[in-house]
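Thread: Modeling a multi-component assembly for a lab meeting

Hi all, long-time lurker, first post. My supervisor asked me to bring a structural picture of a complex we are working on to next week's group meeting, and I have zero experience with this. I have the sequence lines for every component (669 residues in total). Could someone generate the structure of the whole assembly? Inputs are pasted exactly as I received them:
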Amino acid sequence: MAVTTRTATFREAVNEALVQEMERDPTVVLMGEDVAGGADVEGFEEKGAWGGVLGVTTGLVERFGRGRVLDTPISESGYIGAAGGAAATGLRPVAELMFVDFFGVCLDQIYNQAAKLRYMFGGAAKVPMTVRTMIGAGFRAAGQHSGCHYSVFTHFPGLKTVVPSTPADAKGLLAASIRDDDPVVFFEHKLLYDTEGELPEGDYVVELGTADIKREGDTVTVVAIGRMVQMALEAAQALAAEGFEIEVVDPRTLSPLDTDTILASVRKTGRLVVVDEDNPRCSMATDIAATVAHEAFDHLDAPPQLVTAPHTPVPFSPVLEDFYVPTPERVAAAVRATL
Amino acid sequence: MELTKDKALWMYERMVLVRTFEERVSKLFADGEIPGFVHLYAGEEAVAVGVCAHLDHADFITSTHRGHGHCIAKGVDVKRMMAELFGRVDGLCRGKGGSMHVADVSMGMLGANGIVGGGPPLACGAALTAKTLGTQQVAACFFGDGAAEQGTTHEGMNLAAIWNLPVVFVCENNQFAESTPVTYHCAAGDIAERAASYNIPGVTVDGFDLLAMYEAAGAAVERARAGEGPSLIEAKTWRYFGHFEGDQVTYRTAEQSADYRERDPIKRFADQIVSRDLAVPGDLETIQRSAETEIEEALEYARSSPMPQPEDCLTDVYVSYPAAKLAASA
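Re: Modeling a multi-component assembly
Sure thing. I ran the full set together rather than chain by chain. Output:
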C-alpha cells in the first residue's frame, strides 16, 4: 500500500509523533521545562504559553490537558528521575531535557537509575521512558547550549540512542522510541527543526537499530549522523560532478548500531568516511572506524577518514562556531583523501 | 490511632525478623559467605515497620543502600532476599543486584539504591503513576540524613509538592552520613523543618518509638491517599552496626551506642504491647523463635541455590537488543 505523504518540517514531525502516540496510549505523558508553558498563569489553564522553548510541543496541552503535559520546575534530576520511576511503575513518559548540555545536572537519574534498574533487578523491571533532547551547534548558543554528546549516552548499557536526520525519520523513530520498552535518549538537532521533507501520514514507525542509505553510490561509504547527513549529501552532489558517487549511510540509531548495513556498504566501496558533529575522542566516529577496521579490514583500500568537531567546547563567535562544525567541503576533502 | 492486636503482633514480628536477618547477615559477612558491600538496618526497625504498617502490596517504596529492613517491612520474601545477598540464581535479582540493589517490583519495592539521594525522584515517578492512573497507591520514600543534603531530595520534595503527589518522605536520621555527623553536615536543626520550604507538613519523630512512628506515618499516608499531597517525617534513629560491615565505627563512642541499645525499639514496643494487653510474653517468644527458624530456612535456601552461569552476565540489560552486541569485544 502506498504511503501518503505531505511536505512538513522536522518540528511538525516530532509534534505529530507525540500527538499520535499520546492518542494511541493513555499512559504516554509528557514532562519538561515549558513543554506547555504558562502553568498557573490565569488564562493558560487549558492552553500553553510556549509549547516548548522552540515550539516543538505546541498544541499538546490544548489537546491532552495539563494532567498529561506537565510543565516542570528547572529540576532536571527531579523530573527526569520521576520519569524513570513512572516508567518502572506503569506510565510511558516522554521527558524533555531542553538542551543535551544539561545532562550534567541529571545524568545519575538517567544512567545509574533508569538505565540500570532492569539489569540490577535481574530483568524484573522495565523502564519504557523516552528522553527527548536538543543537540547541535549553529545557533550561536555557545558552550553550554550547543553540544551533541550522543556518544556519551551510547556508551551506557541499558540506554538506546536515536539521532534522526529527516522529518520522516523523526516521526517514525520517535514513535518507535516511545513504544520501546527500554529507556531511549532521542536527540533532535536544533538546526533541523525548520528543514522540510516528505512526512508519511498516519501511523508510521521506523524500527530502532536500522540504518538507512540516504544516497546510493559505489565509490566511498560516508557514514553521517544527524544534521551531518545534510553535509554528506551536499558533498555528494559536488563529488558527483567530479565523477564520484558516494554512498551516504545514516545510522539513525547509535545504540543499537546497525553495523551490518555499514559493513555491507564498506565491503562494496572499500572506503570509509565518518562525519560526526560530536567531539572526536571516544566518539561515534572512532567507534565506527574501529568496527570497520576490525570487521572489514581486508575490504579497505584506504585508511578511514574522520570528519568531526574539534576537541573543544562549542565557541560563541560565528567565525569560531563555523570553524567548529564539519562542512560539505571538509567531507568532500576527506572523501578525496581516500581515493 | 487505634492499634489492633493483629497489627501490633505483625509489627513486632516484622521488627524481630529484620533484627534477626541483620544479625545473621553480619556474621555471614564476617565469615566471608556474603560478598560485596553490606549496610545493616538493625536499630532502625521501627521506622520501616511503622511506615509499611500503613501500606499494602500495591503501594510503592523507594529505599537506600541500607535496604534490608525496608524489604522485610514491605513483605518481601526473605528466602529470595538472602539468596540475592549470596549472589545466587534464586535471588530476587537473580544475583545481579546484591544487597545494595535488592528489589521486588512485584511487591512495590523499587530497589535498594547505591546512590545516596537516588530514590526521591523515583518515588515521585511512582506517585505520578498512581495519580495519573487514579489508583490510590502511595509511594513512601526512605532516605537518610546524608541524602537530605542531596539536590535530588530537595528537587523531589518540591516536585511532589507542586504536583500534589502521594509521597511520604521518610528521613531516617541515624545521625551519621557514613562517618560524618549530622551536626556537621546539616546547617539546619531538624531536617523536618525543611518541609516548610515546600509548604508540606513536616514532623520529627523518635524513630526508636514504633508507636510514635506508626502514628506519624498513619497521618502522612492517609493524607497522601486522600490526594492531599506529600509529607515529610524525620525519624531520629541510630544504627547498631557501622556504616558498612567492616566499619570499625571509630567516630561514635561506646557509651552512645550502649545508651541506644538500652532503649532498644523492639524491647520498648514489646513492653508497650504487653502493658496494653495486645500481647502476652508467650506471643513474643513464639515470634522470636519463628523468626529464627525463618532466617535459618532462608539461609539454607540461599546456600543451596545454584550460582548463575557466567554468561548470565549478558542478559537482562534490555527488554530487546541484538544479543551479539552485548558481548565483550574478543
